[in-house]
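Subject: Sanity check before I submit

Could someone independently write out the structure tokens for this chain? I want to compare against mine line by line before I put it in a report. The sequence has 154 residues.
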Amino acid sequence: MGKGRKPIPLKAKQLTGNPGKRKLTKEPVPHAAVLKRPVWLTGHGRTMWERVLRVWRGTGVLTGADQGALEAYCAAYGRFVAAQAAVDANGLTLEDRWGGMKKNPAVTVLSEAVAQMRSLGAEMGLTPSARAHLAAAPSDTKDEFEAFKAANAG
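---
Independent answer below. Compare away.
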């Protein structure tokens, strides 16, 4: 029997205005923390880190608890770019020592990096389908949610 759909995080439901109108369950709330780019993350991975933070900064979707997942996503992106460059430079196949053809090992690295990015990206709202669940509304959404919370507090 399948596991069913992954639950949508509370923050994502709040950003969308809880379209299903189901009761919102409480979740553990990680402490707000500034995500710090690790020093080992360089090149294209670093560029992706900055791009992701620029997109999600201030939404509350990514917290300090997501540091490791974001590091892994950006590292996978760095491997993806490097592997694609190697495939572009050397082709999908290489000549082996006997003169036969074999798959370029960079193709495997490329494929694994894409799989990691797809998995981690979906978890963090970095894919189009994941963002469709978030449907981040205009900047006044937070004010509407705060007003809703205040009206229903108690």
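---
OP: Matches mine. For the report I'm noting this point. DSSP finds six helices and two strands in the chain.
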